[in-house]
Specification:
Length: 433
């Protein structure tokens, strides 16, 4: 299942519009990433909630947008092979369309009204009950906690609806801890077995996960299971063995969604030889929470590699997250003075953008210093222009430059350049007289 486009009509705070989610260029491998970014109040999380509703859980959308009115429409087009799913929030239904040419024009169709009998026989949500696909949602402010584990106890995954909420399920920590304990014990048994290594499912999953977290954090990471005096899940990180609750918040937040994602896939698809390769729709709300920039810039590329057939939608404010993605799309949301939000055309992620480029060009932040320094710089430039026009006081300008230069080494260099240019222009003006 791949989400191709979303249409919004009478859906505050958005203007009526189509949001297109282009695929990755042909030949590019890894998960397909779509980054939603923009100022507060531009609807980034609300878009994630629409996607979660289309995939199976509309509770977060109801909480943020309220019950839909007769004129409120959020329509979504998704496809798989020759079939397309057309979902609408009003009335809440999903119709399946058989077509070899599924494109955004389907979003312009009027609402499809089905009888109750037809609705029962149609797909209620995109890809629901599909044994080969999954959709999960996470808010990265949630941190994992320790939970009791029992040796090789079956994990109860529960309803797929619950795992599309951005708030953790009641048994979230139990799923993470028990699944990881089962995975590590399974890997140990595979290691001791005389069977072929290519069949060592648990070992391969654990190794990929632990290598990913080691790469992101820059320290060796692994899960361990201690059998005595009782079975417990522990984390080995940077040479120290700890409980999950003893880990820093940043690592607990990574475990809270990245490890949770793997735990749920491993639990939901126990017969699949490699559940990490399952096509998955992954919805992430601010994955940079609690993370140092050095970790932020590694996280999404690591997820693209770990889940190579995923479609990942991310709401983020972080220039480090945005600049870290080489293959994907950036959707910039902008609000006008009336607060109506319009999305720019999707912009391909660039391999060459630095986080400084992102701050200015994508996030629209032009200021580089604290507010007080920016005010002093604005006053300096006004005084400089007055001097260059012949109406200002050069000595006052020099005093302002000296005061600003004392604030930092970088400002000292800036003021040196500014005054060198001002002195040169003043000298030229005097000579011309």
């Amino acid at each position: 299942m791949r989400i191709e486009a979303l249409r919004l009509e009478s859906f505050p705070p958005f203007a009526d519009q189509n949001l297109i989610f282009p695929p990755l260029p042909e030949g590019v491998t890894g998960g397909e990433v779509h980054l939603f970014t923009g100022e507060n109040g531009t609807g980034k999380t609300r878009l994630l909630c629409v996607l979660a509703a289309a995939c199976g859980n509309d509770s977060d959308l109801d909480n943020r947008a309220g019950k839909p009115s007769g004129s409120t429409n959020a329509k979504l087009l998704a496809s798989a092979g020759r079939k397309a799913w057309y979902w609408s929030w009003q009335p809440r239904l999903c119709a399946m369309i058989n077509s070899a040419n599924c494109d955004v024009r389907f979003l312009e169709m009027p609402l499809i009204h089905l009888s109750l009998a037809e609705l029962r026989n149609s797909l209620t949500h995109l890809g629901e009950n599909d044994p080969h696909r999954a959709a999960l949602a996470f808010r990265a402010t949630v941190r994992a906690n320790d939970a009791k584990v029992v040796a090789m106890q079956t994990v109860r995954f529960g309803n797929t609806h619950d795992h599309l909420s951005f708030e953790p399920t009641a048994n979230e920590d139990a799923i993470i801890c028990q699944s990881m304990a089962n995975l590590k014990m399974g890997a140990a048994m595979e290691y001791l077995s005389k069977g072929p290594r290519e069949a060592a499912r648990s070992m391969k999953i654990a190794e990929r996960l632990e290598a990913t977290i080691s790469q992101v954090t820059g320290r060796e990471f692994s899960f361990d299971v201690t059998p005595h005096p009782e079975v417990r899940l522990r984390v080995y990180w940077g040479g120290v063995t700890m409980r999950i609750n003893q880990l820093p918040d940043g690592l607990r937040s990574i475990i809270g969604w990245l490890v949770s994602c793997i735990a749920k896939l491993e639990t939901q698809f126990p017969e699949n030889s490699d559940p990490l390769d399952i096509p998955i729709i992954l919805l992430l709300d601010e994955p940079e929470s609690h993370l140092h920039p050095a970790w932020q810039r590694k996280l999404i590329p690591a997820a693209q590699t770990l889940f190579p057939h995923s479609q990942i939608f991310v709401a983020t404010h972080s220039p480090f997250v945005i600049s870290s993605v080489n293959s994907g799309w950036i959707h910039i949301l902008r609000a006008n003075k009336a607060g109506i939000v319009k999305a720019d055309e999707p912009r391909p992620c660039s391999e060459g953008d630095s986080y400084l480029d992102v701050v200015e060009d994508i996030l629209g932040v032009k200021e580089w210093y604290d507010p007080e320094t920016e005010q002093l710089l604005a006053e300096f430039r006004t005084a400089r222009d007055e001097v260059l026009d012949g109406d200002g006081d050069v000595d006052k300008l020099r005093a302002m430059a000296e005061a600003i230069a004392k604030r930092s080494d970088s400002l000292r260099e800036v003021m040196a350049r500014e005054m060198a240019q001002a002195n040169r222009l003043v000298a030229q003006g005097t000579a011309n007289e």
